[in-house]
Amino acid sequence: MYLRDVRQVVGLGLTLWMFLTPIVYPASMVPERFRWVLDINPMAFLVDAYRGAVLDDRLPALSSLVVFAGVALAAFVSGYWVFNRSKPTFADLL
C-alpha cells in the first residue's frame, strides 16, 4: 500500500529465491564457493529435511530444525510488529 511497485520486486525476489533453493537439484551440485548461499537460505534447511525423510529415510538434524524455527519466529515477530505499527494508517490509504 505504501510502495506501488512492490509486487514486481516481490515476484522477482521469490523467483530468484526458488532457484537458489535446492528443490529440483541436490545441494551437492552447488560448487563449494557458492555453498554459502545455501547456508543463509532458510528454505534450504527445510528442503533438506524433507528430502532426507522421503528419499534417504533419515530424520532431520535437530540443529537445522532449530535454525529454521528461529528464522520463522523472527520473521513472524518482525512482521507482526510492522503490521501493528502500520495498521492505523490503512484506512487513510484505502
Radius of gyration, CA atoms, in whole angstroms: 17 Å
Could you report the average pLDDT, rounded to the nearest whole number? 86
Secondary structure tally: strands: 0
Task: Sum up the overall morphology in one term.
Answer: elongated
- Roughly how much helix do the residues carry, as a percent range? 55-70%
What is the number of helices? 5
- State the distance separating the first and last CA atoms: 8 Å
Proportion of beta-strand residues: under 5%
Kindly name the structural category: mainly alpha
In the residues, how many domains can be counted?
1
Biggest sheet descriptor:
none
Tag the structure with descriptive keywords.
94 residues; mainly alpha; 0% strand
Quickly describe the structure.
The chain is mainly alpha-helical and about 90 residues long. The chain contains five helices and no strands. The chain has helices spanning about 5-20, 35-40, 40-55, 60-85, 90-94.
Written description of the protein model:
This protein is mostly helical and 94 residues long. It has one domain (6-93). The protein contains five helices and no strands. Helix 3 crosses helix 4. The longest helix is centred in the last third of the chain and has 25 residues, at 62-86. It is elongated, with a radius of gyration of 17 Å. The termini are close together. The model has no long low-confidence stretch (mean pLDDT 86).
